[in-house]
Amino acid sequence: MSADNYHMLEELGSGSFGVVYRALDKRTGQAVAVKHIDLEGSDDDIREIQQEISLLSTCHSAYVTNYLDSFVRGVKLWIVMEYLGGGSCLDLIKPGPMEEKYIAIIMRELLQGLDYLHSTGKIHRDIKAANILLSEDGRVKIADFGVAAQLTNIKSQRLTFVGTPFWMAPEVIQEAGYDFHADIWSLGITAMEMAMGEPPRSDVHPMKVLFLIPKEKPPRLEGSQYSKELKDFVALCLNKDPDRRPSAKALLKHSFIRRAGKTEQLQELVQKAKAFENGSVRERDVRYYEETLRDVTLEDADDDWVFSTIRPSASIRQPSYARSTIKRPKLDRIPSEDETDRGAALAMQGMSLKSAPLGDFSTPGDCTPTKEPSTIRTPKVRSNDARKISSATSRKISVSSPTARRTSVRQASGATPTARRVSGQPKQPLGLDMSFGNGASTVRMFKRVSSDDNHDNSKPSSASQFQIGSPQDSVFDADAENRPPPQQQHRLPPAPVVAATKESILGRRTYAKCIEPALQEAQATTADRTNREALSRVAEAWSRLDELDPEGELLLLKGMLERISADPKLAAALLPQPDLRAHQSPTKKASMISTSTTSTLVNPDSAEILSTSSPSKLSSSSAPRRNSELLPSSPPKPQQQHLTPTKQPSQISHTRDPSSPGKLVLNPQNPHLKKLRCSQQFAPQPEQLSPERERGLPGGKQEPGMEHVGFVAEALYGRWAEGLRGRWGVMG
Amino acid sequence: MSKFVGPDGQTAKNEEELAKHISLVKVTLQGTPEVEADQQTVFALVSAILAEGLLPLLVDHIHRLPFEARKDTQTIISNVFRFRSPGSTSSEPDALREVIRKQPEIIIALCKGYERRESASPCGGILKEALKWDAVAAVILYDEPLPDGKTVDIYNDVDTSAPASGRGVFWSFFGWIDKSSFEVSADAFDTFRLLLTKHKPLVAQYIGTNFDLFFERYNDVLIRSESYVTKRQSIKLLGEVLLDRQFYEVMTRYVDSGDNLKLIMWQLKDDRRMVQYEGFHVFKIFAANPNKSYEVQKFLIMNKQRLLKFLPNFLADRTDDDQFNDEKAWLVKAIGNLPDSTAALTPPSQQSSAGMGAQQAQAQVRS
């Protein structure tokens, strides 16, 4: 295996979609940089990554980071590149702005690189100091081809809105078609960045910068500290008319470039930057490569599908949770003092991968544009975020299959928690159906289920942990009824006290599902060592309590919850308000449908979920789905009839949008959705079909007892139906 | 105009010389960012390249050229394939049509570029652009090894109802995708995907004729591949193809098969999440089919309780994926509504009245 050719060393950093390590090629002894991309961590098409690789692999220049190899190992893609130990140009200007003599050298090397790229039909589209790497001996190389474009025809233009705002050329922002000259603009901005330490307008919000660049006069380097040549060079690059911007080749003849010295001079700069980093920043801690251990999820034989012999369904045993008894690595993995901060942080991250859902909370932050100049890609501006989200969540799962088998449903953003609880309820799919239609009992039923699942959710922040108890709650009683004891016993780590009473079982459960994961999450998200130590002491103490006295544990938690709910301010902050309303006024459910999606989605009937939620999807993500086709075809449910279709979209999208930022981000990336969106345009309206035709179409006929299939089946087959009509006279 | 030396028996100096010439031809054909190519010269050059039979030479030896010359060669061939003489009205560009009519073996040779790492990317690049034209797809699909060593002439030799032998170049893609290094495999898969999805009526007819062979290879080589990337991408592509209206007949036949259902159900139990996820999008098609075959109904019913236990927790972390959760909820309900025992199932022979639509569809395809 190719991976065995490399001896992995320390981590160099982590980029938009991968961690980069230094490594040695065992065959040559040569130092290389190896980027690991977790393919499981992203819904994205592997194609995008492949395109970057194919672009890189067709670059062969002394001025471009050299691609060496790529291969897949397990679910990780390894990309092997030449190792550049001098850091990026951004590192070089961290100590302060760069002297002109250095800028001239770097610019000359960059122009050589751009000339190469442009002559081979490539546009980099993200030239900036951070993407320029240096070797220790001062060679300068263009790096990061994540958004680069390969033109099939040298004369063709691009439209894609891509790059990093501060460095983007006006014609790129205006999306009016651009070519190689866009890189020259970014180069001019990069020259200013190196001379001033920051790109122009760096104090402006990046989104606002996008308006300013095309509107305002191009930035100029001003001040007597800069030479006339540099100012002129910058001014030439920053011409708003791309056609009047010189090519890379032409700029190589500029007087500022011609006077540039040898690249060896840059070694001083590299040394200076290294000294600066070592001196001012706290000791950079080294993280070493660790082979990720994947849980081998050996399914219980009993869980395997059965295709040969017919067993009566009664013989299928109660779900065995044997796999869940595997104790997740936790407190014992809390780093001891001798580990460095970052090492510890890594260890904690590793832990959180197995247990704590970090992804959801970090999402909103990821979505809001920050001053951090992160590269924009369209449509990848979303995919970037989506990647982060999905990598956090699905990586967690990929290593924790045993836990996933529990009801590990989490509230993503509070938007539709109840709906998920429904689908996450593993034991009583039929029970849910029985309760359907009985307004009051439905809600109560779900209240139990949902609070139960809140345990399962193990939402790790203290806030959501306490969601389990609302004032009038009888969570714990309900819980014991819902879950057969053996299951908990399996799930518990071996403990001195056998949980026998209802209370002690619940105590155990509380610990396993809420407290322990919450503590782990807190650990994982706490960077400060002192704080983490304190946390780990709490964790230890609590685990002791759980071992000895699960009943007391439960009482303690109950007491806490009661006090929280007694205090209006705390209750408001910590307890889920929408749920409360739903609980308090179950009979008002119908009237709440129009204002709160949450309560609407409580309804277990999937058809109803589909029909109420699809309009909001239409409006909020402008991504019509197949579900929306259900609207005309599925008969409205009685308790929903007051909902006029025109009323739904705005209201529901209002209630949903702000609370679920992840939706807009993720869904357009769903490859299946993309495809649907395209085909949707051609989707026939089922009611347009004449009745005779409908009878002839698949989906039109239903066997007795199979009517339920009709809803989605009709939607699924609707599109096919159109094709049939077109081509088969038979059907008409 | 083209001072070509055959790329055989090159010394290092020859190689350099050759690379220079190739680069020159490239610049003449496409110009530079600064200088527009001269149309008359281009016309003359393209004619010369075709007349002197340079294309097969270039394609056959592309792997032996130096790095930049390989890319230049790609540009040259792509430019030739793109070339249209002024006033031309044919669907394909003139030079490409010439090639398809008279030298279709060039297209086949380009596919075989996937046999080598050096030639995979340039040949793949040319192919992907040329696949814009359905004639190119047809050349690849209907390629058969002929006793006289010639390449099938798609305009005269093709009988769309005759089953393929499985030895044509199209069938080699399965192996290239499964067995090659990541770069080559991913490139070959990209071309394969384009081939299947770009000219759907053509491909639907082809798969219809070669249904069993196609899915035997697809299931065995791609879906059961050891390679994570191949497996994941091929399940996804399968889902896309099946859900496409133009592949309706293919879909109805596919979802009738209990073996296909079994294979997909095992994918739901794969230990890699994205494989499960892509598998789900195929599995739902089986469940949504209102006219399930006896076999499919039987398997679903036999596993009803297991599915009802399995599905609610299936990929439960995809909380942000509303569409997925909606579909999953629906699926749970649909399966919950299946009968508990296979006893009540109508045996295959008496089922005909139940599923008119799909039955007719199959009848059409099978007739």
From TrEMBL, chain A:
Cofactor(s), by name: Mg(2+)
Bias kind Low complexity: ranges: 611-622
Subcellular location: Cytoplasm
Region of interest (Disordered), residue spans: 355-436, 449-495, 604-704
Keyword annotations from UniProtKB, A to Z: ATP-binding, Cytoplasm, Kinase, Magnesium, Metal-binding, Nucleotide-binding, Phosphoprotein, Serine/threonine-protein kinase, Transferase
Alphabetical list of Gene3D superfamilies matching this protein: Transferase(Phosphotransferase) domain 1
Sample GO molecular function, one term: protein serine/threonine kinase activity
Domain Protein kinase positions: 6-257
Compositional bias ranges of the Basic and acidic residues kind: 449-458
Listed Polar residues bias regions: 390-416, 459-473, 644-653
Enzyme class: transferase
Enzyme Commission number(s) of this protein: 2.7.11.1
One GO CC annotation: cytoplasm
Binding, ATP: K35
Catalytic activity: L-seryl-[protein] + ATP = O-phospho-L-seryl-[protein] + ADP + H(+); L-threonyl-[protein] + ATP = O-phospho-L-threonyl-[protein] + ADP + H(+)
Keyword DNA damage among record annotations: no
Main location: cytoplasm
The protein, known as: non-specific serine/threonine protein kinase
Lineage, top ranks: Eukaryota, Fungi, Dikarya, Ascomycota, Pezizomycotina
TrEMBL record, chain B:
A GO cellular-component term linked to this record: cytoplasm
Superkingdom of this protein's organism: Eukaryota
InterPro entries linked: ARM-like, ARM-type_fold, Mo25
Spans annotated as Disordered: 342-367
Gene Ontology BP, a term: intracellular signal transduction
Span of the signal peptide: none
Biased composition (Low complexity): 349-367
GO molecular function: protein serine/threonine kinase activator activity
Family according to the record: Belongs to the Mo25 family.
Official protein name in the record: Conidiophore development protein hymA
Organism: Cladosporium halotolerans
Lineage: Eukaryota, Fungi, Dikarya, Ascomycota, Pezizomycotina
